[in-house]
Design brief:
This is Winged helix-turn helix domain-containing protein. The protein is mostly helical. It has helices at about 1-5, 10-20, 20-35, 50-60, 70-80, 85-95.
Length: about 100
């Protein structure tokens, strides 16, 4: 949205292109101008509470490929983890980024 606006597109043109209302475009433009941050980005992942167990599991796996679904199953079974697989995936990606 902001890229289109910077390219000189009108708010109504951006709204048509994205299939949203002009009010939505104005809202997001105003939020960006105010420097507002999406609250979801500040949420702590549920998996953080099991960081020590995740690190232990990672150490036991060595340097090979990692099966996050197996990690999630292990956390649920052995540590009573109640979060989603997606939460574990997000935690893993943030904590152990892939080498460049």
């Amino acid at each position: 949205m902001s890229v289109l606006l910077k390219q000189g597109q009108t708010q109504s043109a951006v709204a048509r292109l994205l299939g949203v209302t002009e009010g939505a475009v104005r809202y997001h433009r105003r939020r960006r101008a105010e420097g507002a941050v999406d609250g979801r980005s500040r949420q702590v992942a549920k998996a953080v509470g099991h960081a020590e167990a995740i690190a232990q599991w990672r150490g036991a796996c060595g340097d090979g490929a990692v099966n996050i679904a197996a990690l999630h199953d292990w956390l649920v079974r052995e540590h009573g983890y109640s979060g989603s697989l997606k939460s574990v995936q997000r935690y893993w990606a943030r904590t152990f980024p892939a080498p460049a």
